[in-house]
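Researcher: Following up on the earlier apo prediction. This time include the ligand. It's magnesium ion, with the SMILES given after the sequence.
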Amino acid sequence: MDEGFTLWFTGLSGAGKSTLANLAAEELRRRSHRVEILDGDEVRMNLSKGLGFSKEDRDTNIRRIGYVCNLLARNGVIAISAAISPYRDVRDEIRRNHRRFFEVYMKCSIEKLSERDVKGLYRKALAGEIKNFTGISDPYEEPLSPELVIDSGLERVEDSLQKLIGTLEAMKYIRNGAGR
Ligand SMILES: Nc1ncnc2c1ncn2[C@@H]1O[C@H](COP(=O)(O)OP(=O)(O)OP(=O)(O)O)[C@@H](O)[C@H]1O
Ligand SMILES: [Mg+2]
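Model: Understood. Below is the ligand-bound prediction.
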């Protein structure tokens, strides 16, 4: 029987959470897994509409995502979270509530992220125009023992995807897809 779990991405804005989450979802669906993505940006427009970026609101947002992921995961779905989730204690609390949890730290330097500046936010944050911007004017606590670290400043997207799927197979979160 297919077993659900939560695939939890964490990392700074622009580190590649949404990009890799979407590619992983595509590959997992191709292998007949049921998959749902809870993307930070989308969640903030519905499930967490009205919440801001204080520590309290961020924690509430992440706890809600964790709660929904757990409901999905225990019903055989691979639930993917792609939200910054800056605080270690809340991530670890969510991990403790899960039976199967796989955390991916999307690591990338601020220099590289500012260069990339996908949403134009680093330029503003570095100019002091955005309060509570994670990594610049708000904390980010790196995971201490994530199941996987992806250095998106160094790796190509396709290599990161292969590494992720390979690790999920090796750690028996999913069946080996070779030869299918
Ligand atoms: N190895 C990699 N993995 C993922 N993304 C990468 C990688 N290398 C380069 N990129 C690029 O980095 C950017 C990541 O943007 P993305 O929107 O996925 O970030 P995010 O972590 O979801 O940010 P946010 O928290 O603001 O939503 C994309 O333009 C992507 O193509
Ligand atoms: Mg994103």
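Model: The mean pLDDT is 96.
Researcher: Noted. I'll compare it with the apo version next.
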